[in-house]
Design goal:
Layout (H helix, E strand, L loop, with lengths): L5 E7 L3 H17 L13 E6 L2 E10 L2 E12 L2 E11 L5 E11 L13 H10 L2 E2 L2 E2 L5 E3 L4 H9 L7 E4 L7 H13 L7 E5 L1 H10 L10 E4 L16 E2 L1 H6 L1 H18 L24 H74 L3 H4 L13 H8 L11 H6 L14
Helix pairs in contact: 1-2, 4-7
């Protein structure tokens, strides 16, 4: 399934009224500035025609279920309509939530929607909303983590209320931190504004971070994406959180940027919205009436608006049908994968049972031969040995007096057959 829709959902650090004022101001600025350049002198309830083929719908309500305000921009272009929806919502004593969606609604029922890019509006909103997700701040640019901030970042990774992934970047050994941040990390994570929590570790923080997350480390200029629900004490959990190597980032930056954005985009589109959004009604706005227009003309305009609403509903229905079809396909794949994992688990369990039986037999044999102390002495294994040849090669870049004369591709292909050994005393 393509990541066709951009979706940002954050909690505003401001109250509902202040959030509404900031959202209104930033939206006007975004619409007025190039490349759009629309006339936004006034927003009124209902439908606002702000340019040829461009409408801005606005509605709001306050009641027992709370309050909401919503703006929907529709820009009709050849091939379809680009729709941007901005919603603020506050229910009961809960915080104010902000949702921003951008999606393409094609005219042709057989055509696929064009994937939406991250709008500049997202970063503009994050700059003024004091946005949060669980314990973490959500910013448009990566936040620098110093050594004293590491414990708080680890708490954010383990926070059960977190919805967004956390993307953590490290710095290559010997590289200038500010240059790496400005020239490499900033462009790499730019499409993730509003889709992820962004951090870059200072060199001092990196050491402490990896000491606290032995199974979830990131180093050597790599970038790791931490999904919600990190368990630092479980080694197997580390497999859930993807790592992108420095080699990929520096040699193929555009490709790396695209790959890094895919998972946060997919999670944003699929993660259920907070419950308070469920009670917001479907938006169905009409053009405002003019008392000076003759009745027949008013009815003609009203009929045209109703026809347009039906067309819009049809386009949205087709897009939602495509999404449901894709989700059903993903569900079938997940069910098939679950069956395979169950079979693999059973096989591994049987192998573990055989290994434990053999270990007990060997311990009994050693005890019978007078080597009982040796039989039950734990074997110490160094924690810092590389787990793969890729990790070993990345470490070699930090040893300026050591030159690797082999072939990197051949070495990486060996990952599936053997574990690397750390060179000792090479210079």
């Amino acid at each position: 399934m393509d990541n066709r829709r951009y979706r940002m959902v954050v909690t505003s650090g401001l109250d509902y009224v202040s959030t509404g004022a900031q959202v209104d101001g930033r939206l006007r600025l975004w619409l007025k500035e190039p490349p759009k350049g629309y006339d936004v002198a006034a927003f009124a309830e209902g439908r606002n025609e702000i340019a040829r083929g461009v409408t801005l719908d606005h509605d709001s309500a306050t009641g027992t279920s709370g309050a909401y305000g919503r703006w929907r921009l529709r820009e009709t272009l050849p091939g379809g309509t680009w729709q941007t929806t901005l919603l603020i919502r506050q229910a009961g004593d809960g915080p104010t939530r902000v949702q921003l969606d951008v999606e393409h609604l094609p005219d042709d029922p057989e055509a696929l929607p064009v994937p939406a890019k991250t709008p500049r509006l997202a970063g503009s909103l994050l700059d003024v909303l004091d946005a949060r997700d669980g314990l973490a701040d959500v910013a448009a640019k990566p936040q620098v983590v110093e050594a004293e901030d590491v414990d708080a970042v680890i708490d954010e990774l383990c926070d059960q209320t977190r919805r967004l992934p956390v993307v953590v970047a490290s710095t290559p050994h010997g590289a200038d931190f500010d240059t790496w941040l400005e020239d490499t990390v900033d462009p790499l994570v730019r499409p993730l504004a509003g889709l992820a929590i962004l951090y870059v570790l200072s060199p001092d923080a990196e050491t402490r971070f990896n000491r606290g997350l032995a199974y979830h480390r990131v180093y050597g200029g790599g970038v790791r994406t931490y999904l919600p629900g990190v368990d630092p004490a479980w080694s197997a959990d580390g497999q859930r959180h993807r790592v992108m190597s420095r080699r990929m980032i520096t040699e193929r930056p555009s490709h790396a940027r695209q790959i890094l954005a895919q998972l946060p985009q997919r999670l944003a589109a699929r993660t259920p919205l907070p419950a308070e959004f469920d009670s917001v009604p479907v938006m169905r706005t009409r053009a405002r009436g003019d008392s000076h227009v003759p009745e027949l003309e008013r009815l003609r305009v009203e009929n045209g608006v109703l026809s347009e609403i039906l067309e819009e509903a049809g386009r949205e229905q087709r897009v939602r049908a495509d999404e449901i079809r894709d989700l059903k396909y993903e569900l079938r794949k997940a069910e098939n994968n679950e069956t395979l994992l169950i079979a693999e688990y059973d096989e591994q369990y049987r192998e573990l049972h055989r290994t434990r039986t053999q270990l007990l037999a060997l311990q009994k044999h050693l005890t019978a031969t007078g080597a009982g102390a040796l039989a039950y002495t734990p074997v110490s294994v160094p924690d810092d040995d590389p787990e793969s040849f890729e990790e070993l090669l990345d470490r070699l870049t930090g040893l300026p007096r050591l030159h690797f004369t082999g072939y990197r591709k051949v070495t990486l292909r060996s990952n599936s057959t053997r574990r690397p050994t750390v060179p000792r005393g090479s210079a």
